[in-house]
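Today's session is about reading a structure prediction critically. Students often jump straight to the picture, but the first step is always the sequence itself: look for stretches that repeat, for charged clusters, for runs of hydrophobic residues. Only then move on to the predicted structure, which in these notes is written as discrete structure tokens rather than atom positions. Here is the chain we will use throughout the hour.
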Amino acid sequence: MSIREKKGFFGRLSEKIGDAIMGRATIDESLFDDLEEVLITGDIGLETTMKIIDSLKAEVKAEFITNPNKVKSKLKRLMVEAVDKQERHKISESYPVVILVIGINGGGKTTTIGKLAYQFKKKGLKVVLGAADTFRAAAIDQLQVWADRVGVPLVKQQTGSDPASVAYDTLSSALSQEADVVIIDTAGRLHNKINLMNELSKVKRVMQKLLPY
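Below is the predicted structure for this chain, in token form.
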């Protein structure tokens, strides 16, 4: 949804919300029912509408709001947050997005993962990292430093563990957390190392058991 479309969308809904509130002296259940109807008929969606109304009720109660006119600004903020959250999940038609980072030894994979995680998190996305470079203990430690620095969870196992197992656990954890982006580190390898390339194929096959795309 473009900025212009958002303005038009919220503008139309804002008018209808104003009409629902106009003339009311108190905040009661009928007001919330009317606002709920406005959102549903305004294509917000049933599930999202219920979450917005529930949040609105909670805020009105917590802040002891009695003036109906103060409800409109709160509702508008909750709507914007809900729509923005939906759009964040449109980073891909299938989510979470899985980024499998591969390359030669010393190519800067770990640093790149840290920078990517930072940029995604800054955009409001939920990120999970996976330490599937189980060949070097230092690789896991380095990725942990980046995870701590950025403030995102890291899924890891002991050195020497099966990389595919780490990838599977990472994706499983991401799905349970409803994460937006999964970034998985892998050991350095060259394209002509058949065994190592087959290992990547296994990582992909294992993850496809949870997310077949």
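Discussion point for the tutorial: Helices lie at 3-21, 29-41, 46-62, 69-88, 109-122, 137-150, 163-176, 194-208.
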